[in-house]
Amino acid sequence: MTTSPFGRALCAMITPFDATGALDLDGAQKLAAHLVGEGCDGLVLSGTTGESPTTSDAEKSALIRAVREAIGDRGTIVAGVGTADTRHTLRLAREAEQAGADGLLVVSPYYSRPPQDALEAHFLEVADATGLPVMLYDIPGRTGTRIEPDTMIRLAGHERIVAVKDCAYDVLGSSKVISATSLAYYAGCEEWILPLYAVGGAGFVSTVANVAPRLLRSLLDAYDEGDTARATAAHQHVLPLVERVMADGLPGTVTAKALLAELGLPAGPVRGPLRPADPERVRGLRTAYEAVAVGGW
């Protein structure tokens, strides 16, 4: 099994806001402590689920500092710093290091769709900017650009490029990189957690872990204990909730925040252009959660 540099079970944490839409640092601390207490080894801040496109640089740094204060050394913090601009990404990387992050999540620059040589140069420049380990974020459905397997293999030669958040849905490509490098592959899509883990993955970075961290961790624990039947059962058990949160026509940020609010945990509104879930969607989310919560997982 691949070494997991940030732990195995990572939550792609939402960014709580208050009723006015301002950053809710007290809520972030409460939620972070809850997630770590429920089995998360680490938290990914200011990623897709954390609404990074609509939070300021100052808010990103303040969030890291607040969460670090709340969880201490009980969990790792991986800070999302990827943008469409290399200079901006470098600045965010240095600020995240100063704020107390343990690692950096760096998404492919979006919109400009750089070719592979430019993409490689971008990631190397970010990796050289700080002393922090880097998790590459491969999500071509959002960025428009795949980090090709051969590019991944070359990037793995950098001492600080240690991990990948994998949302490419390419078992052949991922398996090729896993077999050829020491990169830790984290499933970024919940239905991909068990399949990727079975071929040498390191764990997950999950949106659904905001509301079901213990269940998702139990899948990894069962597999590590050699109980593949129980791991498969956990995978199948959580799928209806995964579908509601991640594949029901709304972004995961919207659905995760709606369900967290139902559960009495910090969340708050989403920022535009996102819009809140309507009452019917919220009822469906609550029903799916309650069904999955039954069974002692």
UniProtKB/TrEMBL annotation:
CDD domains: DHDPS (cd00950). Keywords: Amino-acid biosynthesis, Cytoplasm, Diaminopimelate biosynthesis, Lyase, Lysine biosynthesis, Schiff base. Its main location: cytoplasm. It catalyses: L-aspartate 4-semialdehyde + pyruvate = (2S,4S)-4-hydroxy-2,3,4,5-tetrahydrodipicolinate + H2O + H(+). GO terms for cellular component: cytosol. It is found in: Cytoplasm. Pyruvate binds at T49, V205. PROSITE patterns: DHDPS_1, DHDPS_2. Belongs to the DapA family. Homotetramer; dimer of dimers. This is 4-hydroxy-tetrahydrodipicolinate synthase. It comes from Streptomyces mesophilus. The gene is dapA.
